[in-house]
Specification:
The protein is α/β, with parallel strands linked by helices. A hairpin with an 8-residue loop joins strand 4 and strand 5. It is globular, with a radius of gyration of 18 Å.
Length: 238
C-alpha cells in the first residue's frame, strides 16, 4: 500500500501508514524503537544503521584491535559503547512504558532543547488496533511496510546535514500509569517551532472482535500527559 504524505500545516510533512488489519500487542513499542533507530542514522547521529553499529561495536570490544574495522567509525571507542548502552536501556524502558499504559504519541527531539528543538519527529499511534497473536498481523512485515513508506515518501533526502547533537525522547501515557523511570511533564506543550515530521499509523480492514479499538476512541484523553526519558542521547560520527 502506497504511503499517504500530507501536510495539515504548510511546511509540516506527515507520512500516513495504514496496516491491513490489527497489529500484535506490543507492536507500538517496536514501531517506536525502530523509528528512533532510523531517524538517528538518517540524521547523522549514528555512523551506521543501529544493528550494524551494535554488531561491529561488540566485535571491537571483544577482540580489541585485532579485527578489521570499518573505516572512520571508531567502533571500539567508549563513546560508541556508551551510545549503545543508552539506546538499549531506553528500549527496555519503552517496553515497560508500553506495558503499563496506552501510548498514543511518541516524540523524538533533535537539537536545541525540549521546548525549542531543531527537529521534531512524532509517531502517532492513535489509529492502531491491537489483537492477539493468532488474529493480528506479524510485527516484522508491519515494520517493513513502515520503512517502505518512509523510503517512498523520501522525507530525509531534502534535509541539510545535521551536526552531532543530543536527542530527547518523550512518551504520552496515562498520568497514573505508575512508570518510574520516565519523568512526568504535566504542562508540556508540543513545540511548534523547528522542522516537524509526523508519522501516523492506523489499521484498515475489519479487525477481529477481540482486537482493541483504535486508540483515538479511548476515553479520558485529558488524563494523558507527557513523560520525558531522563537521558539525552548523544550522537557520534567517529
Amino acid at each position: 500500500m502506497r504511503p499517504r504524505r500530507s501536510a495539515s500545516v504548510p511546511g509540516t510533512p506527515a507520512v500516513s501508514v495504514a496496516f491491513p488489519g490489527a497489529v500484535r500487542r506490543g507492536s507500538g513499542c517496536r514501531f517506536a524503537c525502530e523509528l528512533l533507530k532510523h531517524v538517528l542514522h538518517q540524521r547523522n547521529q549514528l555512523p551506521l544503521p543501529y544493528e550494524q553499529l551494535a554488531y561491529f561495536c561488540r566485535r571491537a570490544a571483544q577482540n580489541g584491535d585485532g579485527i578489521e574495522k570499518p573505516p572512520s567509525t571508531g567502533l571500539g571507542s567508549s563513546k560508541c559503547q556508551q551510545v549503545l548502552m543508552e539506546l538499549e536501556g531506553l528500549f527496555q524502558h519503552l517496553e515497560v512504558m508500553f506495558s503499563l499504559t496506552l501510548v498514543p504519541r511518541v516524540l523524538f527531539l533533535l537539537g536545541g532543547n525540549v521546548m525549542n528543538p531543531k527537529e521534531l519527529y512524532e509517531l502517532n499511534l492513535e489509529g492502531i488496533c491491537e489483537g492477539s497473536a493468532e488474529e493480528s498481523l506479524q510485527t516484522a512485515p508491519c515494520v517493513r511496510q513502515l520503512f517502505h513508506s518512509l523510503f517512498v515518501a523520501d522525507i530525509f533526502s531534502e534535509l541539510k546535514a545535521l551536526p552531532i547533537t543530543g536527542t530527547l525522547v518523550l512518551v504520552q501515557g496515562h498520568r497514573d500509569c505508575g512508570v518510574e523511570w520516565f519523568r512526568p511533564k504535566l504542562n508540556y506543550k508540543v513545540p511548534t517551532r523547528g522542522r516537524k515530521l509526523t508519522v501516523r499509523l492506523s489499521c484498515d480492514g475489519d479487525p477481529h472482535l477481540s482486537a482493541s479499538p483504535p486508540q483515538h476512541t479511548a476515553p479520558e484523553w485529558e488524563d494523558y500527559i507527557w513523560f520525558q526519558a531522563p537521558v539525552t542521547l548523544k550522537g557520534f560520527s567517529e
